[in-house]
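Lecture notes, continued. The same structure-token format from the folding unit now serves as the input rather than the output. Read the line below as a description of shape only.
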């Protein structure tokens, strides 16, 4: 079983330059230092407006399969077999900067493939606001 976590920025977080900058470091550059900063103080970053939301559990242990199963390709990914949706919020495709957890090991979706990231504990599920809008692009 693989858990898929999407990086989310709250409405309030989008008005904070530090949160927008951190999101850009994660989602566009896959900056490992930025991930370490968030992982070292997730409660603070959640309060500021950036967190990881558990969106799906995918049967199996193949990271590539989990990502393709949580992408809108020819239909909404919630219709894909072996995927259990874990969010009531609108769904987007899994992309760079999101997390996948297999056997307790966390990986970040990288520009090409996956990179293991060191964590002391699994991602703490975010309590995002309903219907979050996408973060602005630089």
């Amino acid at each position: 079983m693989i858990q898929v976590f999407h990086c989310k920025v709250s409405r309030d977080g989008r008005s904070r330059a530090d949160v927008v900058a951190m999101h850009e470091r994660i989602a566009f550059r896959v900056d490992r230092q930025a991930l370490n900063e968030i992982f070292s103080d997730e409660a603070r970053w959640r309060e500021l407006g950036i967190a990881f939301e558990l969106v799906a559990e995918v049967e199996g242990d193949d990271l590539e399969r989990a990502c393709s199963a949580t992408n809108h390709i020819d239909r909404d990914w919630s219709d894909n077999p072996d995927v259990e949706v874990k969010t009531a919020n609108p769904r987007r495709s899994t992309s760079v900067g999101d997390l996948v957890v297999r056997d307790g090991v966390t990986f970040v979706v990288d520009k090409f493939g996956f990179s293991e990231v060191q964590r002391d504990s699994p991602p703490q599920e975010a309590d995002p606001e309903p219907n979050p809008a996408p973060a602005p692009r630089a």
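Point for the exam: The first strand starts at residue 2 and ends at 9.
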